[in-house]
Amino acid sequence: MIRRTALLAVVVACIVCVACGTRSGTAVGAGADSPPARHAVDGGGPIADVGGSTVATAAVLAATAVVAPAVVTGVVTLADAPAVATSWPGRTACRTASAPALARDLAGAVAGAIVWLELDGSPVPLAAARAPAAPPPLLTLERCRFEPRALVVAPGGVVVIETRDTIRHEVAVTYDDGERVARFPLPLEGQSFGVTLPRAGFVAISCTLHAGERAAVAVLAHAHVAATGADGRFSFAAVPPGRYRARAQHAASVGSVPFVAESAVEVAAAGEAELELELALTPR
Questions:
Q1: Domain co-membership, 125 together with 167
Q2: What are residue 91's DSSP bridge partners?
Q3: From edge to edge, which strands make up the β-sheet containing 138-141?
Q4: 21 lies in which domain range?
Q5: Same domain, residue pair 263 and 149
Q6: Digit-coded pLDDT (tens) for 174-230
Q7: pTM higher than 0.85 for the full model?
Q8: Are 217 and 208 in contact (CB under 8 A)?
Q9: I need a surface site. Which of 75, 90, 144, 185 has the fewest CB within 10 A?
Q10: Rg (CA), the chain
């Protein structure tokens, strides 16, 4: 009985060793000098050895190829524009200087421009799995002025509008094709209201009681889209290599004759690209 048990244990051990050798990529019955099967560089499954030569399929090569993305930065400046768009037309209802439609710094850089990249004539679509911004972006109304001048959200995104003034405002939210999304009063300091923007497009935010209080929201399902800050600058991270066309439209263009710009940009792998876009008035 003891001999039978020992014999059975030896047989089980041999079976286990054969199975382990098969999984590890070593051919059963191979000699001690036989090389182990080579593996793909990404640590994936083995590449088969046929007649002593390595056979790598196109699928394996595609899976192991990694193209490093790049960073694209730039600035938006302003070409000649009507004086009314760059002047300070009096004072606001808050007794502060009114902001010009196209505010620029001493170097000519313009805040409130929307910039996006296009590849082969079309914007790069936003990945469906990308999570919405949390918390939603905030647009404040203070000293009778919206800040920031422009925001970017994906379709279905929410923008929170808050007043920090002691005077009454009434906010209208309207797509540039005329569709009104909301209209609501903000009579109390610290009061806020969340607005859902259901579809793509450019949206004007304005006060129906006070002219000149305006901002814009770009509702775009683009992977590479941004709004310029006070210094007129923008930045895109993780841009795959390729030849793109950068386009810009100013927030003051929403619902009016647009100020637009465009320029080609070549993006190299793991590099940095810098470009300058100059806005110019373009009749419809």
A1: yes
A2: 97
A3: 146-147, 138-141, 157-163, 192-197
A4: 2-64
A5: yes
A6: 998 899 999 999 999 999 999 999 999 999 999 999 988 999 999 999 999 999 998
A7: no
A8: no
A9: 90
A10: 30
